[in-house]
Amino acid sequence: MGPLHELDERVEDERDDRGDKEHEQDPARCRGQGIEREDRQGEQDRIQRGTTTGATPGGTGPGSSAGRGSCGASLVMLRSMEDALPSVTLLFCGDVVGAAGRRALLGSLDSLRADHAPDFLVVNGENAAGGLGITPKIARELFTAGVDVITLGNHTYRHQEVWAYLDEEERILRPANFLRSQPGHGTCVVERGGVRLGVVNLQGNLFLDSGRTAFSEADAALHELSNRADHVLVDMHAEATSEKVGLGWHLDGRVTAVVGTHTHVPTADARILPGGTAYITDVGMTGARGGVIGVKREQAVRQMLTRMPVRFETSEEDPWVQAVVIRTPRGKRRRAESIAAVHLPAGRP
Ligand code: FE2
Predict the structure, then answer these.
(1) Among the CATH numbers 3.20.20.80, 3.40.50.300, 3.60.21.10, 1.10.760.10, which is that of 86-345?
(2) Of 5, 23, 116, 155, which residue is the catalytic one?
(3) How close is the Cα of 338 to the center of ligand 1, in Å?
(4) DSSP readout, 97-129?
(5) pLDDT digits (tens, 9 = 90+) for 115-162
(6) Is 5 a catalytic residue?
(7) What is the 32 CA–ligand 1 centroid distance (Å)?
(8) The whole model's pTM is what?
(9) 3-state class of 95 per DSSP?
(10) Which of 69, 165, 268, 283 is the most exposed, fewest CB within 10 Å of its CB?
């Protein structure tokens, strides 16, 4: 969430999740996590994935070793495997804000599935718990509902009970360009129907406290994923539009999609960049549009008017799901053929 929260003293009204029974997860679907774990997997793992999932082990990122030293027969096999890569649909939902955002998302999933038939569902959940951060209970609720990967941002560590969970659960990501010493990891790979989706979470360096630079970490993340993912979705959680546009250009042709989050206001610039990467500066917010980027509007306006601290609460008024649907072409890795914004009112009869 944006700078409004620098003065936030909001009521922590949704932290009732300590001690809850852990839900069963589906670890077999997650194919990896941090750089350190990738280092342990090594070349043997990459070869196995290429031959057992039906997806090419070739890569487009820096350091890719696709095809090097292979015989002609192997190259033919790899080409055949790439040709067999099916088209997939990615649904990415903008920042889920508070209980209203969670209800909007969960209550709209059947409709979203019917309308868009997503193969993968990725959600930014950094405001899911009372508008600030996320808890293990809420993350599990989202996973149980069918979310494949949760990305986060500048409120990642708001709730201390999530710190250990960020190391334990592979499919919840904090920005990869946080310090390596901070809990969690910034990349993972999930698989469905023989297609491997890599997800990378980054955070901007303008006006946000990111320990390392987003652009160089983006390159490092692609190197890590070079042979492990058929498609790559990047969530750039950033304040400055210029920084997100710049990252889109930096990654164009190397990833399937770069989607921006954090401002909670959707931009009208969704497009396919010349290299084939789907791009949007900000997806928007899954939450109450009747507030000020998720906060009750009377409280936000009072703080702006008086310049005095105001206790913030999460708005419940007029919840919407704001998302993008990205479709990929058959037989092409790390390319998109379309991106479309979804603005869906929720909770209306
Ligand atoms: Fe944020």
Answers:
(1) 3.60.21.10
(2) 155
(3) 26
(4) BHHHHHHHHHHHHHHHHHHH--SEEEEE-TBTT
(5) 999 999 999 999 999 999 999 999 999 999 999 999 999 999 999 999
(6) no
(7) 25
(8) 0.80
(9) strand
(10) 69
